[in-house]
Write a structure and sequence with these properties.
160 residues; alpha+beta; 38% helix
């Protein structure tokens, strides 16, 4: 967990984006590796050069995807929402649960097939409120349900 719990505070949900949420990133890395291999081939480079470029691009892509996923964390306690992300720089968002007005989730057709989606928490705030998004979580409907059951606050039970 990326932050300290207050006395008596309990965790309702804790997670990271699903590995399936990183698939589009990996596909872009594969496409880049193929493009570079074709370009090097047209330029008359040898097999060793092609192989090295493909291995390096794919290796960097895999490591970047793992880093992106593992350095993004989502936590919901019975008192607050906490979102933290970043490798070199860090972005942290946090709000009290009593500010949450609505929770819902969304899934594109591809996300439904992959079993992932985004959980959206609408919070009260200045001009139009703010939105916390836990992106790419596995079973977003289950996350909404566990938050709804575990948190004793005013989210409309008909949502999700």
């Amino acid at each position: 967990m990326g932050f300290s719990l207050d006395a008596g505070e309990t965790v309702i949900y804790e997670g990271h984006p699903s590995w399936r949420a990183i698939i589009p990133f990996y596909l872009k890395g594969v496409a880049l590796a193929v493009f570079l291999a074709l370009l090097l081939s047209v330029l008359g480079r040898g097999f060793v050069d092609l192989f090295l470029v493909v291995v390096i691009v794919l290796g960097v892509t895999v490591l970047a995807g793992i880093a992106k996923r593992s350095t993004t964390s989502y936590t919901v306690t019975d008192r607050r929402l906490h979102l933290s992300r970043g490798v070199l720089s860090r972005e942290v968002e946090e709000t009290r649960l009593d500010r949450v007005q609505n929770v819902s989730y969304s899934q594109s057709p591809i996300e439904r097939i992959l079993g992932i989606g985004d959980v959206d928490f609408d919070t009260a705030g200045g001009s139009g409120g703010s939105l916390f998004v836990f992106g790419g979580v596995a079973d977003p409907g289950g996350v909404v349900e566990s938050v709804r059951q575990g948190g004793h606050w005013g989210i409309d039970p008909g949502l999700g």
